[in-house]
Amino acid sequence: MKWKLQRVEYYVNKCNGPPIIFLLGNALECIYSPKVLIKRVFDYAKQYESPLRGWLFHIPYVGIYTPEDIQMLTTKCLEKDSVFDFLGELIGDGVLTTKVAKWRRSRRIMNSAFNMTVMSKPFLEVFNRQSLVLIDQLKAEVNSKEYFDLWPYIFKSTFSNIIETAMGHTHGINEDDFTKMRKSYEVASEMICKRVYRPWLRPPFVFKLYLFLMGKKNVLNEFKQLPLKILEARRQMFTERKLLESSSEGKAEEKNDKSYKNVIDILLNQAEAEDQFTNQEIADEVTTILFAGSETNAITISFTLFMLAIRQDIQEKVYNELSEVFGEDDRLPTMEDLNQLVYLEQCIKETLRFVTVAPLSSRVSSEDITLSSGHLIPAGVSIVAAYVLMHRDEKYYSNPSQWNPANFDADKVASRPAGAFVPFGYGPRKCLGYKYAYLAIKTLLSTLLRNYKFSTDFREEDVELTIDILLRSATPYRVKVECRHKTSLFS
Ligand code: HEM
């Protein structure tokens, strides 16, 4: 045992990294605010070539940020490290957090629920409907003299998107339930972050005591309650639909519409057909989707709008592209329209590079791993695929600390390795919802930007980032909106 620890220490300390303090390792970094911490990590990555090591007391971490190493790790090593267990306490044992042994089955079934050849049409219908709701809600802010924060509007909208695409219309669940769930999600997510960055909160009994002392004893359960409630409602509707389908009248209807239009029905169908999923397992997968797909999309949309509000010249270029595709037509976007919005997509990709929303994925291997630099990482050590650090590397992006959609001009993309841009990860555990995300983000942004012009009093140099589980802007998304047309395109 002692020999094993010495071996880990020997090899980990052969990697680059800032000085280590006796017993503490690099744990003093945790005293910095998340805003400062992320800046320090960016600086370390400039100073030290990949792999970068850090010690949280006695726990070693090795960060990698070259395309070759990230591709190798995420292809070869599918087991996530113990940090994902803390996340699992919030969102359950779904495809994002579960151990490899169970993950293969979950992923296969979830892939079928997110098969975009089948699902893009029903999903687009939801995204279009929700865009109109948002357009309507923003009317309250049009021409106001005060700046307002975009975040609550956008988060509510992406949350509604994910609820409807994941669970369909949910009778008996009202707006209050969703608001409660959004709120408990925010608190639960904050508590999980504290546990990740403050290792003394990691032992389960200490964390339970901490939640109790903070008056947040039930917060993790609260977040999981709504999906279970919705599941019950859906199961009942699903059974009724099945009964109808088996009746003669229903059979005629079934001919016209055989497809399921939301994730939960697909899972219920699987559960019935192959006895695959228990109620708890379905609820865990649904909670995972709510977690993985709502804030991530909301950050990408809000940040892109915010940067466009700062960079009026780029916003005009996006608007010109939209005008070319739609003219004065008030139709909602089709898949063909969205495919033509090449420059808007460049802006979205630049946001995903600049604020790599899911910045890291940590894996743990049961075998020693040799990196492209020749460093050996012993089995059992957490290796962090630091997507965000690769996206900030001058080797692949000129002037990487500036937001610049020209980074995704065709010639620039062709001149760097394909693996140097992986905001959705890489390998078999790559984001399950990346096509969904592009579709949802592009739909919402295109409709908003056709209708409204955004401006702000912030400048590029004011924009700061912060990190919790996700990377996001620390600067509030404070903007003003005005209508592009005399009357709203979609009134
Ligand atoms: C801008 C939006 C999004 C970003 C940047 C993003 C990014 C990521 C990343 C980096 C991973 C981890 C890959 C790894 O471990 O190496 C991931 C996993 C995952 N994402 Fe996303 N994601 C986004 C939106 C979504 C959406 C909309 C959904 C669902 C509707 C989703 C569902 C998932 C799931 C289920 C996993 C776990 C996959 C697995 O372990 O097999 N994500 N995402």
Automatic annotation (TrEMBL):
Annotated compartments: Endoplasmic reticulum membrane; Microsome membrane
One Gene Ontology cellular component: endoplasmic reticulum membrane
Matches recorded under InterPro entries: Cyt_P450, Cyt_P450_CS, Cyt_P450_E_grp-I, Cyt_P450_sf, Cytochrome_P450_Monoox
UniProtKB keywords: Endoplasmic reticulum, Heme, Iron, Membrane, Metal-binding, Microsome, Monooxygenase, Oxidoreductase
Binding site for heme: 431
Pfam families tied to this protein: p450 (PF00067)
Cofactor(s) in the UniProt record: heme
One Gene Ontology MF term: oxidoreductase activity, acting on paired donors, with incorporation or reduction of molecular oxygen
Topology in membrane: Peripheral membrane protein
The family this protein is said to belong to: Belongs to the cytochrome P450 family.
Protein name according to UniProt: Cytochrome P450
